[in-house]
Amino acid sequence: MSHGPNKSASTTFQKVNARLRSYASHLKRKGKWHWIWVIALIALGTAGEHLLDRYMVWERARYAASHYVQLLDVRPIRPRRTFLVLIGDDEYWNGELARRVPIKRDYLAKLVTALDKGEPEIIVLDFAFRSPTPQSGSQESTAYANETSCLLDAIRDVSSQRRIVIPTTFRADGPSNVREPSVLDGHNFPRGRVAEGYINLSDDMREIPLTISLKGGEVVDSLATATTRLADEKAVLEAEAKRGEGLPYGSFIDPVQFPSLKSTEVLSMDAEALKSKIGCDIVIVGGTWHRDAYGRGPQADAIPSPAGDIAGVFAQANFIEALLDSRTYKPLGHAQKIMFGVVLSLLVAITTSLPWALLVRIVIVIMLAVVPIVISYLFRQNLGIFFDFFLPVVMILAHWVIARD
Question: 34-67: per-residue pLDDT in tens?
Fold first, then answer.
C-alpha cells in the first residue's frame, strides 16, 4: 500500500512547523527592549489617536477618506424628498435684503407666503433668530419689531395648510446646554403645525444631530430631526436606536445634486409653475451668499464636510435625506476601535521584525493598511456600522516608518 500522499503532507507540515519555529526564534532574539519599545509606540499611537479624534486634527483628510468609501457604495444616493430655496449673492448683496444682519424677516415672511402656493408638505427655515439681548429674554430690537411681526403672522397663516419648522440654538453652560432666547419665542403657533429644532452642528459633520438634553431635563430635536419627525417619525426612532456611544453617522450628497430655486424666482412664480418645480415634500429655505462681498470670501456659514465646504442649508438637507433614507450608521464602540488598532499595530510590528526582504515587508504593511478600509466598507454595507478607518491606517504606517529595521 502506498503512503505517498500522507508522507508528503507530513513533510509539508514539518517544513511549515520548522519555519514558524525559526520565525519565533528570530522574534525572541530581538530582545525584550525591542518589544518594550513596540508596546510603548502602540500605547503612544493609541493615545495620540484619541487626541486627534477629540480635537478633529486632519479633519479634511478624514472627511475625504469617508467620502472615498461612500463612493464605493453599491447604491448611488441622490435627494428624494427635499427641495432648496436659496438666498444667494444677487438677493443678499444687490437685492432688497441690502446686506442686512440680521436678515430681513419681512422678506422671509414673503417667502413663506409664496411657498404656500407650491403646496409643499413642510417648510423649513434655516436661519438664526437669536434675541439681540439674550439677558432680557426673547425681546426684539425696536427697529426690527414690525418685520418680525410680519414673519410671525406669515408662519401662523401658512401653518394652517403647511407644517413649518423654525430654528433655535443652544449654548454650552458648563457641563449642560442652555437654550438661547429667540425673537420667535413666546408666540402661540397652531399646535402640531409648527415644530422647533436646534441648528447647532456637531464638531464632526459626519454625525447626524438628533436630540439633545438641555439644563432642566428638556429634550430638544435638531432641525433635521424635527423635520424628519413630521415626515416620518419611524425614521427618527430608527436613527435614535443607532446612537451607540455617540451620534449615528450618515453619508453626504454633493450640493449640486439638490434641486433648488433662487428666492427671487420663488417670489415671481405663479402657483402652477411653483408646484411643478417643487414637486416634493420638504422645502428648506437657507442662505448661500458670500460673507465678504459679492462672490468674495467663504459662504456665510460654510463648514467643511465630506462633500467639501458647504453652506449650512446643504448640511441640513443632507441630514434630513439621510434620516428619511435610513442612511444612518451606528458608530463602532471606542473599546473595539482601540482593540482593532492595537491588533493591526502588533501585526505590523511582527511583520517588520521578521527576516523577510524589504519589498515583501512593505507589501504586507500596505496590505494591512488596506484592511481597515475594506472592513469599514463591509461594516457600512452589511452591518450598518460606521468605522473610522483613517486614524488606524495612519497609526499603522507611522509605526512602520518609526519601528522598521
Answer: 788 878 877 877 777 777 777 666 788 889 888 8
Tell me if residue 121 falls in helix, strand or coil.
Answer: coil
CA gyration radius, the chain? 28
Look at residue 82 and give its three-state secondary structure.
Answer: strand
From 326, 341, 324, select the one nearest 376 (Cα to Cα).
Answer: 341
Name the β-bridge partners of 164. 123, 194
Q: Report whether 387 contacts 337 (CB < 8 A).
A: yes
CA distance 19 to 235: 55
DSSP states of 273-312: HHHHHH-SSEEEEEE--BSSBTTBSSBTT-B--TTSSB-H
The rounded distance, in Å, linking the Cα atoms of 97 and 108 is 10
- Residue 268, Cβ neighbours under 10 Å: how many? 11
CA distance 278 to 140: 33
Q: Which residue has the cell 422671509?
A: 108
In angstroms, the CA 287 to CA 300 distance is: 7
* pLDDT band with cut points at 50, 70 and 90 for residue 403: low
Domain boundaries, the chain: 32-71+331-403, 82-326
Cβ neighbours of 52 (radius 10 Å):
17
Q: Whose CA is closest to 338, among 114, 49, 1? A: 49
For residue 301, the 8-state DSSP code is T
* Rounded-to-integer distance, Cα 116 and Cα 122, Å: 10
Give dist(CA 301, CA 108) in Å, integer: 18
Cα 110 to Cα 107, 122, 123, 220, 285, distances in angstroms = 5, 16, 13, 28, 12
